[in-house]
Here is the input.
Amino acid sequence: MLGICRGRRKFLAASLTVLFVPAITWIYLFAGSFEDGKPVSLSPLESQPHSPRYTASSQRERESLEVRMREVEEENRVLRKQLSLAQSRSPSHHRSNHSKTYSMEEGTGDSESLRAGIVAGNSSECGQQPAVEKCETIHVAIVCAGYNASRDVVTLVKSVLFHRRNPLHFHLIADAIAKQILATLFQTWMVPAVRIDFYDADELKSEVSWIPNKHYSGIYGLMKLVLTKTLPSNLERVIVLDTDITFATDIAELWAVFHKFKGQQVLGLVENQSDWYLGNLWKNHRPWPALGRGYNTGVILLLLDKLRKMKWEQMWRLTAERELMSMLSTSLADQDIFNAVIKQNPFLVYQLPCFWNVQLSDHTRSEQCYRDVSDLKVIHWNSPKKLRVKNKHVEFFRNLYLTFLEYDGNLLRRELFGCPSEADVNSENLQKQLSELDEDDLCYEFRRERFTVHRTHLYFLHYEYEPASDNTDVTLVAQLSMDRLQMLEAICKHWEGPISLALYLSDAEAQQFLRYAQGSEVLMSRHNVGYHIVYKEGQFYPVNLLRNVAMKHISTPYMFLSDIDFLPMYGLYEYLRKSVIQLDLANTKKALIVPAFETLRYRLSFPKSKAELLSMLDMGTLFTFRYHVWTKGHAPTNFAKWRTATTPYRVEWEADFEPYVVVRKDCPEYDRRFVGFGWNKVAHIMELDAQEYEFTVLPNAYMIHMPHAPSFDITKFRSNKQYRICLKTLKEEFQQDMSRHYGFAALKYLTAENNS
Here is the structure.
């Protein structure tokens, strides 16, 4: 601020210099040109060398004056140039030409002057402006509906969090899908000084459903019109953002613009940067009425308290009803109605500089909003083409967007020091649990992982499935990381029923997965697969947390607890649904066992029947699962009996038993203390037995494990002695917990472990 005031003083000094130096110089020269009241020529060509008055000294004096005059003229030229530059940068110049910026965009001004004026707009005014207080809460409203929009919101929020220095309060107008996704995401993200409130978008549909809308945003694209009615009555101001926005600066700078509103100004908007509202894009193009180019509603500053007093609700409704009589429908959703209101009431608008909404749509004039990277404030991908839009600098904008898209969201959990934050029960409980751990314990990292809260994004891709009405439906449940991604298409070909998958990925890997899925015809043709991203954090693979996430978000009464590297037999989905009825799974505590086999061949002619599988078993093409390294894991299945069985048969629990089972959705969760490799399934089967589940082997079901490189966790287990010691300690503690919880009946687990 001080530097700008100094700049004004320099500007004033330069102006005075330009005015007075030439005047003084010419007075001096003019006076020196007379001698005895007669004019004396200053040019040597006009001098009279033979005149008695002409002397060598007077010649030198005149030459000296000529040199001085040329120097003064050069100085004046430089000063005029500096004055011109000072004028283009001065805030007063920017204010006086602010309204002209957009008329120059329309071709009535010099484009270089336009860009200079826009760059100047990034400077503050010399007079003291009210700053945003350090701990002042900034309120942001976003309308969000569906799976894709939920992903977009995350990227927008990341860009805001990256730059922010103030507490934030997000007001999310969301449908049921977006609310489920984003509520879980923010709950597990646990960002300090961020509050989230949800408002049911479905309840607002009746407010705007009477307006026909051709825009791809559908009915949700009209809901910004009813924010004065939707948001809390004591909320005075809010920044409203579209989901396809990326911030390149601190949002507090935009919040500070509210202080510049005067009189009846209640809407802060950037002028539309395309020719849409000029009505000349194609023949018979007839847009809604707008003031000049109109305004874009991707970024809006709303003074809610004043809008309510002005009866905004009545104002926009009357305008919409009147215009719809001739326009029949909106083309750009709420933006058309906002512009129609502004056309009738231009005093409502405070025009924001265009760098607050650089619009990357087709035919945009956004290139005139910036001259340098530092000029950018907000980027708006407001074309249906999104990242594929044509723009001279689109590669730079795309890279900026991808930076936030793939940015590790865990790094944004930073505290705002000096700002008191609301008590978060989940955060306080977590801190209490962690404080009770002994950091000197050699197994501290294992114990800590049990309490780690992993950021979770449910339904990362579109999901649409209604369970079968006969209450026999079964969901396949599995978990995976990036190195098992290639199994997805094969599983989808083998299992036609619903699938719930938890994927352990980084932010960057999540985007790789998205591109992989969108490029796969097999995956894109399936809408009954729920992909739930659990973001990486810590040094262990949280296998049981992943299983619990996938189990929790199924919509069927039964689930098949599998692993990602197993292919179910063809037709297993329908076979299990019949078995559910046959064995009365709805009314009994049963765990139906699907026998597991494996192949060491990467290319396998998958057996299409039990008879074909037995033949391959006899030829050595297939084996019972892990018979050569971990026989105890599946031995109780009794494969010898299975070979000839034609009806289901019951087996008893034994130590280290870990079959793959079909159970009701209300079965107990996996124990989170087991991470990485070892005992993660064994502990779960032990708990099922403790709860008196009956293990029943299905005679005509099978699954085959496909070969793959050893996981990082099994490598750690085999090579790290401390890893094995900690796993043994966790097993003993789990068994003790079982004894405390289930009493005398659980003593057999201790005995079985000691005998094994």
